[in-house]
Design goal:
The chain has 304 residues and is mainly alpha-helical. It contains 7 helices and 2 strands. The chain has a two-stranded antiparallel sheet. A hairpin with a 6-residue loop joins strand 1 and strand 2. The longest helix is centred in the N-terminal third of the chain and has 108 residues.
């Protein structure tokens, strides 16, 4: 084999590696070119391996760093999310409290408006009933016939549960003047046979019932009897009895716009029989029959 006369330009790196391998310092430049090439390839392979390991380590290091950075970003995002959640909760609580305050304020305002409306409606209702009462009192004062109906007068009374007041009338108010007259007379123990057919054994009960009705009406319409023997400031309430029925009826009917004395006069004129008038009527009927008889007999006599 021919010896190659051409010599490679030796690399310092390769020469240094050859010197370390053969323990020669400095390395010989007389080595075979093939050996030099072989050594160069070996060194290059080792270098590639070293670079490959370094690149792998660098890659792994960069990947770990990147992953750690991403983990930090995720942690940061979680912290930001938690902070945002806490902030939203705080804002939501503040908004809820604010809305509750606004709702309570609106509820109070609505209650005030409703109370004002109810008050105004109550005032309008009171005025309306008072006008109706005034008209009823006026009409009652014009009653002139025994069977004319009595116009009811309403008063303001609490309900059964005492939650409100309503305008109402007493359910036992007599319907006609005749019933008022009979009620007052029965309370005094007067049972006139011409209009009252109450059996004798039931008259005490009827009297007591009439007194109870008048007493209930007086209490309902705030009518109180006081003794006339005492001053107004020291006057004491008098219990209703048969001897002061006229006084109670006078005060009670005055509340209705009526006059008890007028009712008594009506009763005496229309309910009780009038002997004089009845006798005159019978006399007139007899004379009329006599005149008719004479006219039939005489044929020419004129009947007045």
């Amino acid at each position: 084999m021919l010896q190659m006369e051409y010599k490679f330009k030796h690399s310092l790196v390769v020469m240094g590696q050859l010197a370390r391998d053969t323990a020669r310092t400095p390395p010989s430049e007389d080595d075979s070119p093939l050996e030099y090439v072989d050594r160069s390839l070996t060194i290059l392979g080792r270098t590639f391996d070293a670079y490959n390991q370094r690149m792998r380590q660098e890659f792994l290091s960069q990947r770990e760093f990147t992953a750690s950075q991403f983990r930090g970003v995720e942690k940061k995002i979680e912290e930001v999310e938690k902070k945002m959640d806490r902030r939203f909760e705080e804002v939501e609580k503040k908004m809820d409290r604010r809305f509750e305050e606004v709702e309570k304020k609106m509820d109070r305002r609505f209650e005030e408006v409703e109370k004002k409306i109810d008050k105004q409606e109550g005032e309008i209702r009171d005025i309306k009933v008072q006008v109706e009462n005034a008209a009823a009192i006026t009409r009652n004062g014009r009653l002139r016939r025994m069977h004319q109906p009595i116009n009811l007068i309403k008063v303001l009374k609490p309900t059964a549960d005492l939650n409100e007041f309503v305008w109402t009338s007493h359910p036992q108010v007599p319907k006609h003047i005749k019933n008022v007259y009979i009620l007052g007379q029965r309370a005094k123990g007067i049972f006139e046979p011409s209009w009252d057919k109450t059996p004798n054994e039931q008259k005490p009960y009827a009297k007591r019932r009439a007194l109870n009705i008048i007493e209930s009406l007086a209490k309902f319409y705030n009518v109180v009897l006081y003794s006339d023997e005492e001053s107004e400031s020291d006057a004491t309430e008098v219990i209703l009895q048969d001897w002061n029925v006229d006084d109670c009826m006078e005060a009670l009917l005055d509340e209705w716009g009526m006059d008890w004395q007028m009712v008594l006069n009506f009763g005496r004129q229309h309910i009780q029989p009038q002997p004089q008038q009845a006798g005159a009527k019978r006399t007139g009927n007899a004379s009329s029959r006599e005149e008719k008889k004479k006219a039939r007999e005489g044929g020419q006599e004129k009947v007045d």
